[in-house]
Amino acid sequence: MNERAKAFYLGDFLPYRLSVVTNRISRAFAGRYASAFGLSIPEWRVMAVLGSFAPLTANQVAELTAMDKTKVSRAVARLARAGHLKRAANPGDRRSSRLALTAKGRGTHGRIVPLARMLEAELVAALAPGERARLDAALDKLDAWASRAGSHFERRDACAGAEP
Amino acid sequence: MNERAKAFYLGDFLPYRLSVVTNRISRAFAGRYASAFGLSIPEWRVMAVLGSFAPLTANQVAELTAMDKTKVSRAVARLARAGHLKRAANPGDRRSSRLALTAKGRGTHGRIVPLARMLEAELVAALAPGERARLDAALDKLDAWASRAGSHFERRDACAGAEP
DNA sequence: GGGTGATAGTTGCAGTTGCAACTAATGTCA
DNA sequence: TGACATTAGTTGCAACTGCAACTATCACCC
Question: What's the pTM value of the predicted model, to 2 decimals?
Answer without folding.
Answer: 0.90
